[in-house]
Amino acid sequence: MPRLEASRVRAACQRAGWCTVLNHLAGDQLATALDRPGRHVACPVHGGVHGDGFRLFADVETTGGGICATCGAFPDGFALLQWLFGWSFPQTLERVAQVLRLDPEKSACVPAWARPASHPSSHVRTPRRPRASMTLERLWAQGLAPDHPGAAVLQRYLAGRGLEGAHLDAEALRLHPALPYWTQNAHGRPVPSGPFPAVLALLRAPTGEPISLHRTYLHPQGQGKAPVATPRKLLPAIAGQSLGGSAVRLMPAGESLGVAEGLETALAASALSAMPVWACLSASLMQRFVPPPDVCHLTLWVDKDRSNAGERAAAALRDRLKPRLAVTLRIPADPIPAEMSSLDWADIWQSRAARCVV
Question: What is residue 149's DSSP assignment?
Fold first, then answer.
């Protein structure tokens, strides 16, 4: 088997920047430290009440190294990753080479997203890529396509909502098999739990460019959502971007398109109507939605809730778009059950599926 040369991988890390590599492989563990190179934070291995036991070197972009007052010093990124994950050096070399897409049989090749821009003057510093962008790329690359054998948890979860057999596009939805769930302890320090399988939904701007990533943490067996305080989380938008107008493009749009708030609501609305339906993820984002220019008719699949927030957002979107295209509102006719705070089209679809089974 061809061998990876450590010198080649080190050189590629220098070109790509160690922050990119560390974010892809250990972004969850090193999130706070990557935001504050040279400053003390809680140790990613043993924590710490005062949060002052660990820091990445100020020149981490070049060296990849860090130091913990308890665990010791790690002069470069390879030593740091070995300490974090217990990998051997050959394992670490292979993982880093995978991030940089290095082929043992070919000359070193750093992917375009990892290469610093060239400048006519060597004294001009290359701006560091926003961490939100690197986190999005890392998590998305770790996700499995919905039809992958390792994504069976996703299929079981959807089957529990009556959505088995729904067409799922790997460019819109993926399953992360084991994603840590981060909270804060009593001292405000990030602490992980889980990991849990998680549905990854790619949010795209009106231009079609990826802008953020939504995560739905699932029960390990797919039996509903994970037992955590906030099973749904949205990454910050990539720096300089706004979430306004964006949506999860679950399927290709035609002249007619539907939009809904939640992912499951959008899939259920599509199953009910056979039209493509996108997910805006919230009432506020639905109100700001910008449809593609080829859409002539837009159907708003509205959540019915006791606060009327969904209906108000849909009415505002309709009024904004009415001059240039036809807009139809679809609101569940059934009353909201006493034990529920809202009723959406996923609930309607699930109740119909249950009646069909009976």
Answer: G
Model confidence pLDDT, tens digit, residues 327-348: 999 999 989 999 888 899 999 9
Torsion angles phi and psi, residue 356, rounded to 5 = -65, -40
Multiple choice CATH, 6-114, 1.10.287, 3.90.580, 3.90.1200, 1.20.120: 3.90.580
pLDDT in tens, 79-119: 999 888 888 888 888 889 888 888 655 434 433 333 333 33
Q: How do the domains of the chain map onto residue ranges?
A: 6-114, 131-238, 244-358
Other beta carbons within 10 Å of 333: 8
Answer yes or no: are the C-beta atoms of 213 and 236 closer than 8 Å: no
User: Which CATH code fits 244-358?
Assistant: 3.40.1360
pLDDT in tens, 40-84: 888 887 766 545 678 899 888 889 999 988 778 888 999 999 888
The C-alpha atoms of residue 286 and residue 259 are separated, in whole angstroms, by: 8
pLDDT of residue 3: 60
- Fold for the domain defined by 131-238: DNA primase DNAg catalytic core, N-terminal domain (3.90.980)
Local structure of 186: helix, strand or coil = coil
Question: Over the Cα atoms of the chain, what is R_g?
Answer: 23
Q: What angle do CA 322, 325, 329 make, to 5 degrees?
A: 65
Cα first-last separation, the chain: 57
Distance of CA 155 to the CA centre of its chain: 19
Dihedral over Cα of 147, 152, 153, 155: its sign: positive
DSSP 3-state of 190: strand
Residue that the structure tokens 């139809």 belong to = 328
